[in-house]
Design brief:
Chain A is mostly helical and 289 residues long. Chain A has helices at residues 2-32, 39-57, 61-82, 92-114, 140-162, 164-174, 176-181, 186-207, 209-212, 218-233, 239-258, 265-277; strands at 130-133, 136-139. Chain A contains twelve helices and two strands; from the N terminus they run H-H-H-H-E-E-H-H-H-H-H-H-H-H. In chain C, 74% of the residues lie in helices and 0% in strands. Chain C has helices spanning 4-18, 22-37, 42-64, 73-88, 94-113, 121-141, 143-146, 171-192, 195-205, 207-212, 217-243, 253-266, 272-291, 296-310, 312-326. The chains are: A mainly alpha (289), B alpha/beta (250), C mainly alpha (331). The B-C interface holds B 51, 53, 72-74, 77-78, 82-83, 85, 89-95, 97-99, 101-103, 105-107, 110-119, 122, 125-126, 128-129, 132-133, 138, 141-142, 144-145, 160-161, 163-164 and C 6-7, 9-11, 13-15, 17-18, 190-191, 193-199, 201-202, 205-206, 208-209, 211-217, 330-331.
Chain lengths: 289, 250, 331
């Protein structure tokens, strides 16, 4: 029983991490109907940047997290304005080709600069502690992940539900054409959302480096996970991707623990079934887009 | 004798909205029947229900006495119920000749043939030429459809439906958006429809409706307001108020 | 104009669409000549011929069926493993292996085609991707069957037609692959010009109208997808037989991505695009490999980005239009 709860705990931490990594993607998909397979590249580059900051320059781990956000956000904004802006109006095939190109370039560049071995971030001692509560073993590091991601999720929910930017963003996701007609600056909202989403991915990449494993294969390895969160969760709210990410995290951890021989097979099969069962996403409203 | 097409108590609701409300309609063999009504009266919804793009919430559709309510769109075409579209739905990368050619091949049951060349059978070419000629498309038969002038595309809309060998033809606003100079071509095309085909015409253009129809049904808010001869409809006070009145006021 | 004139014109026009163009004769003459003129390059050319067939298969799915696939390697790898396992079991006749791979991949294609019938491009991308990932994981885990990460070892392939042994320089292999490619190309060419082929184009062009003229849309897509899977399986079997080795790499994601690039380089939807693209891609890979083999992936990525940002049509505008005209892509 304790093992089950420990797995559940690890799964939740993993799922929340996936949410922070992927939530930006659901916004870009909903807002611009953009198929972006390169979302993981931003997380990887920012994760590596954090690793260099901590390991080489002695920046404290907790201080490196906002810096990783910044790296991801700046990179995202620059890429969006210079490159992505050219592909919104192109076919989905073009978007796929383009973003795979970005993935390949980022993978090769990181391998060139940092080598192809997995990189670890030195965690401060207090994060290596473990607490046992009622037989459930909880690592301090995963508690931190849950805390940070939980705060971020609440913050995002607040921004979307309560701020002017949030209501404009929701209007734009709902129907970009109408929103444009109402004078909402969809393009700049998109740039901000893209940058923020990339920043969150960067933060997630740094925060979760130990759980996820940072290596040049990162963008491809997690491409599928992000896509699952987005397609299963839909883009009409933040709750959808959040629940989808949690389910995915718990299912993946449980799958790897209880049926290690099957590996990622479980996740891919679940995804196939999901896609067939509810192709428009688990949490989209009936009759929605 | 069975009607060519009979609609019995057809309804369609979208959530709380009733787009089609208990519509019954009888289309005789060889009929020239027009369906008119103001914008939002549910005309296109009705065509979508008849062609099988939408499923009705209630009611039945009988084609020559046979219930086709549950059939898929392609199966309805096989039984002779064919439609055109208000907004052109053509194959932009094909030519009029290949477009009509593949529809004729389908009708002759050759569409699963994968080894012989399209048009290697003489009768297909004969039919294509006859249809293209009737709709004055012979001169552009090898142009790319997407590059044709709009009026020609409207004609191809009808030609393509004719190529499917309809017994009942649903024409969804054939003259929609056609500039004045090309209208005569469309009117001629509609007038040239084979007499044995029963036609249900949906149209805004009163000129076309009164030239074409022997019988008219008026649809308002998803329900049939009245049916009758063109003279009866033109004389009906309710129609003038609801429909023609609105037309005049624009 | 006499009554017979338009009829003759229409007949001629339909014949013209399917007629062999001079450039096509030249293409195949040059391809055949390469076997005689470049004996030292047969290993590389063999690989090109195999990828040409693989890309032809994707063209059927994407260029004719309109389905964006990100997992076409599934059928390539499946065919490779099928041929490899058959050889391992002692049935070493190459043509038998080819037939088995074709059947196996076509069966897989048929079953999985039902998954891509509906849905947006994104759904289809994810479904095709997941199918290939599931297959990759299966091949990775079922070590007793597939050799896992080590691949299928100890495959021996018997002589072709019982007479020609596969040689190290790839002479027999290249001839074998070329003949298979040519035969399958001929079949594909016939099929895309048949009424069935035109109905597939119609479905891609406008599925709503295709149904409204009485075409069973789903059947068309199932048909073309199954056929493409069969082609990909044969390509995979050719690679397995000529290298006498099957590895997980055949199912890997980058295979599907590279394949898309090949097809896009050559142009989509006129059958020759994938074959030309495979030639250009492999030639580039060979050239870059001489300079900086490690960072090939970077250049592929850059090429993809540039292709899209500048515009595929614009980059290749001249050559693509010429190629399409020469090889006859007309509606």
């Amino acid at each position: 029983m304790a093992a089950v709860l420990t797995n559940l705990f690890d799964g939740i931490a993993y799922g929340m991490l996936l949410f922070v990594l992927a939530c930006g993607l659901s916004v870009t998909l909903g807002l611009m109907n953009l198929i972006n397979l390169a979302h993981g590249s931003f997380a990887m580059v920012a994760g590596y940047a954090a690793a260099v900051l901590v390991n080489r320059y002695g920046v404290p781990f907790l201080a490196a997290l906002p810096l990783a956000f910044l790296v991801g956000a700046v990179l995202g904004a620059v890429m969006e304005r210079t490159l992505y802006v050219h592909v919104y109006r192109k076919s989905h095939l073009d978007q796929v080709l383009f973003t795979i190109g970005i993935v390949f370039m980022s993978m090769a560049t990181v391998a060139y600069v940092a080598g192809s071995a997995q990189v670890f971030i030195h965690l401060p001692g207090f994060l290596k502690a473990r607490y046992v509560v009622g037989g459930v073993s909880m690592g301090a590091y995963r508690l931190l992940i849950i805390a940070v991601c939980g705060v971020l999720a609440l913050g995002l929910q607040f921004i979307l539900a309560r701020t002017r930017f949030g209501s404009r963003l929701r209007a734009a996701v709902d129907d970009p054409v109408v929103a444009r007609g109402l004078g909402i600056p969809v393009d700049s909202i998109f740039t901000i959302a893209f940058a923020a989403g990339s920043g969150l991915a960067g933060l997630g990449g740094a925060l979760g480096a130990e759980v996820l494993g940072l290596d040049p294969g990162f963008p491809l390895k997690f491409m599928v996970y992000f896509l699952i969160v987005v397609t299963v969760g839909g883009s009409s709210s933040i709750t959808g991707p959040f629940v989808a990410a949690l389910l995915l995290g718990v299912a993946d951890v449980a799958g790897k623990y209880y049926v290690p021989d099957l590996g990622a097979f479980v996740i891919y099969t679940v995804m196939l079934v999901m896609l067939l069962w509810r192709p428009a996403g688990l949490f989209t409203r009936a009759g929605g887009r | 004798m069975n009607a060519a097409l009979e609609i019995v108590g057809l309804s369609r609701r979208f959530g709380g909205l009733v787009a089609t409300n208990d519509v019954s309609l009888r289309l005789e063999r060889g009929a020239r029947h027009a369906l008119i009504g103001p914008n939002g009266a549910g005309k296109t919804t009705l065509i979508n229900l008849l062609s099988g793009v939408l499923a009705p919430s209630a009611g039945r559709i009988l084609l020559d006495g046979t219930d086709i309510t549950a059939l898929r769109p392609d199966a309805r075409v096989h039984r002779g119920l064919v439609r055109t579209f208000q907004i052109n739905q053509l194959f932009a990368d094909l030519t009029p000749l290949t477009t009509v050619g593949l529809a004729v091949s389908r009708r002759l049951g050759l569409d699963r043939q994968f080894w012989r060349r399209l048009g290697s059978k003489g009768e297909i070419v004969d039919e294509c030429v006859a249809i293209l000629e009737r709709f004055d498309l012979l001169g552009v038969m090898n142009e790319r459809v997407g590059a044709l002038p709009y009026g020609r595309q409207r004609l191809l809309e009808i030609a393509l439906a004719i190529a499917c060998g309809p017994r009942v033809l649903l024409l969804d606003e054939p003259a929609a958006g056609v500039p004045e100079g090309e209208r005569e071509g469309i009117l001629a095309g509609v007038a040239a429809l084979p007499v044995e085909v029963s036609v249900l015409l949906i149209e805004h253009d009163m000129d076309l409706v009164f030239r074409f129809a022997q019988r008219i049904s008026v649809l308002v808010n998803g329900s049939v307001l009245m049916q009758g001869s063109p003279a009866e409809v033109a004389a009906d006070a309710r129609v003038r108020e609801v429909y023609l009145g609105e037309e005049v006021h624009g | 104009m006499s009554a017979a004139a338009p009829h003759a014109a229409a007949r001629a026009a339909l014949r013209e669409v399917a007629r062999w163009k001079p450039a096509e004769y030249a293409f195949w003459a040059a391809t055949a000549a390469s076997w005689f003129l470049l004996p030292g390059q047969h290993l590389l050319l063999n690989e090109i011929a195999i990828f040409a067939l693989f890309a032809l298969s994707l063209d059927l799915v994407l260029g004719f069926g309109g389905i964006v696939s990100l997992g076409h390697a599934a059928y390539f790898g499946f065919g490779g493993y099928a041929a490899g396992m058959l050889a391992q079991a002692g049935y070493t006749d190459p043509l038998l292996g080819l037939a088995a791979a074709a059947l196996a991949s076509a069966a897989l294609g048929f079953v999985t085609s039902f998954l891509v019938l509906r849905g947006s491009d994104l759904t289809r991308i994810m479904v095709t991707l997941s199918v290939s990932l599931v297959l990759f994981e299966l091949a990775n885990r079922l070590t007793w069957l597939t050799g896992g990460a080590d691949g299928l070892q100890g495959i021996t392939i018997g002589p072709l037609l019982g007479r020609f042994d596969f040689d190290l320089a790839g002479h027999v292999a290249y001839a074998y692959s070329l003949v298979v490619l040519f035969v399958l190309f001929l079949a594909a060419r016939r099929i895309v010009h048949s009424p069935f082929g035109w109905t597939v184009r119609a479905v891609r062009g406008n599925a709503l109208r295709a149904a409204a003229i009485g075409l069973a849309v789903d059947l068309r897509l199932v048909g073309i997808y199954t056929m493409a899977a069969l082609y990909a399986g044969i390509a995979g079997a050719l690679l397995a037989q000529s290298t006498q080795f099957v590895s997980l790499d055949m199912l890997a994601f980058h295979r599907s991505a590279d394949l898309l690039l090949m097809l896009v380089i050559g142009g989509v939807g006129y059958l020759y695009g994938g074959m030309i693209g495979a030639l250009v891609f492999k030639a580039m890979q060979n050239w870059v490999a001489d300079i900086t083999p490690e960072y090939w992936q970077f250049w592929i990525g850059l090429l993809l980005v540039l292709l899209v940002v500048i515009g595929r049509e614009r980059i290749f505008a001249g050559s693509l239009v010429l190629a399409r005209r020469a090889f006859g892509r007309r509606g």
